[in-house]
Design goal:
alpha/beta, Rossmann fold, seven-stranded parallel β-sheet, about 15% strand, binds NADP nicotinamide-adenine-dinucleotide phosphate
Length: about 250
Amino acid sequence: MHDQVAIVTGASRGIGAAIAKRLGEDGFRVVVNYSGSVEQAKAVVAAIEAAGSEAIAVKADVSNADDVKALVKTAVDTFGRLDCLVNNAGITRDGLLMRMKETDFDDVLATNLKGAFLTSQAATRPLLKSKSGRIINIASVVGITGNAGQANYAAAKAGLIGLTKSVARELAARHVTVNAVCPGFIETDMTGALTDAQREATLGQIPFNRFGRVEDVASIVSFLASSEAAYVTGQTIAVDGGMTMA
Ligand code: NAP
């Protein structure tokens, strides 16, 4: 992957940080996007550099079209090309349907779904120039199964799976692959917000009887970003300890 360039959105913390570090270890030069956590984004850049690759941190709100265009431009201006986009940035605003505020629905859709649309759109031209472009969308098992209290989040993640398949069909002729990875429950700040009772109930649904690690997701992204996955597109791959096996 030497010389290849990846953008990872929401890479200051959690799953995105692990993906950015793993792609750096794979030899990608990495654009570490963040929205607020500048110190954590800088620490991810330092870790990638310490492992022998190059990285920059770029602030951009993925739900803002101008920010996203500037993010992609900075990546191409700095490193000269773009080969891989990982749409990972995401938020939750949980609540039961009857109590969910309209802004909680809109905010989650804006970051988790529209953000991936805007970033994919802005990145497509440079990705087409790559001989092996990759878009990898971090969806969720909740986008497949639904989840009480997450109508907004599940709708966004289900939409992201539809976006993945549509863009995969559009870009296949130009050798850009587009896939979705669906994590189950992974140990991050996002799942740190669960109550003990929610954690117990969730563990009961996971055949592996443990939450996943951020590295479990990063290794699948690493594979999809590699030349080994050149003939894989439009797929939805769960990394969930067996939670959603058919
Ligand atoms: P997290 O620890 O809460 O981190 C979220 C990341 O997204 C942070 O780096 C944050 O940046 C960034 N972000 C949030 N809003 C943004 C915006 N508008 N523009 C740019 N960046 C933004 O979350 P996580 O658990 O790692 O989740 C990462 C992805 O995996 C999300 O898409 C999530 O839905 C998905 N996922 C997670 C799980 C899980 O169990 N954790 C399961 C399924 C799917 P700042 O810190 O700079 O704000």
